[in-house]
From TrEMBL:
Pfam families: Esterase (PF00756). It comes from the Bacteria. This is Uncharacterized protein. Transmembrane segments: none annotated. InterPro entries: AB_hydrolase_fold (IPR029058), Esterase-like (IPR000801), Mycobacterial_A85_antigen (IPR050583). Coiled coil: none annotated. It comes from Paenibacillus baekrokdamisoli.
Length: 245
């Protein structure tokens, strides 16, 4: 049974206006940690697929547990919602909304959050997180805004050919640190790009990034391309970047 303390979560709904997104706004969910105090400052985790991270990943409940019982420093989570019909167009680097979404993230979302909430502004205090194409766009946001982001969590990253090509063209990822997992039963996943071997493309991305100096925490486990698999690794991935020294 889940400890009742973990379920007492503070989640604020926000709507951010945007000049870059065609619809002109985007819904956000902001998790505030136990004992939240505007006088303090907090690390921050930015999640793609915000609704799913909160509902299926149960990231707010997991965060409460880590903070209350595992000695993890309190942190803020920002979940950025996405229209599933537009997800590939925004998250995939060859999508027709990708450039606008990446610019929205760096030029509008980050200043909005940093104006309203006491989040830290160093790259070492910001984490990007995503599942599948959410992991992909997190990597491409970090590439576009290298002075802002160095830390990425990618659960079963959908690193299709265009992502691999773009990373291969870059020479230096020595400031980057990634936590990557993939399921061993993800070798023939039926995606909107056809049947994809996620194990193969994640191994290839790991190799490319390591060859260019990135620090990679990579592992493969029994699991499929579903939240039931990814949720199990949310605690370890957060601890990896947020653990107290």
């Amino acid at each position: 049974m889940t400890d009742e303390r973990y379920l007492k979560r503070t989640i604020v709904r926000e709507v951010i206006t945007s000049h870059y997104l065609p619809e002109g706004q985007r819904n956000l969910r902001v998790y505030l940690p136990p004992g939240y105090n505007e006088v303090l400052s907090y690390p921050v985790v930015y999640c793609q697929d915000g609704e799913e991270f909160f509902n299926f990943g149960r990231i707010a409940t997991i965060a409460n547990q880590l903070i209350l019982d595992e000695g993890v420093e309190p942190f803020i989570i920002v979940g950025v919602d996405v229209d599933k019909k537009l997800r590939t167009a925004e998250y995939s680097p060859d999508g027709d909304r990708h450039s606008n979404y990446v610019t929205f993230f760096g030029e509008e979302l980050i200043p909005f959050i940093e104006t309203k909430y006491p989040v830290r502004r160093e790259p070492s205090e910001r984490i990007l997180a995503g599942d599948s194409l959410g992991g992909t766009v997190s990597l491409h946001i970090a590439i576009a805004y290298r002075s802002m982001f160095h830390q990425i969590i990618a659960y079963s990253g959908a690193f299709y050919s265009e992502s691999l090509r773009l990373v291969e063209a870059e020479l230096d990822f020595k400031d980057f640190s990634l936590y990557m997992i993939v399921g061993l039963q993800e070798t023939a996943f039926e995606s909107d790009r056809g049947v994809i071997n996620f194990v193969e493309i994640n191994r290839r991305m790991k190799q490319l990034l390591e060859e260019r100096g990135a620090q990679i925490n990579y592992s493969e486990h029994d699991g499929q391309h579903v939240w039931g698999f990814w949720q199990k690794f949310i605690p370890a991935s957060l601890i990896h970047f947020l653990r107290s020294e």
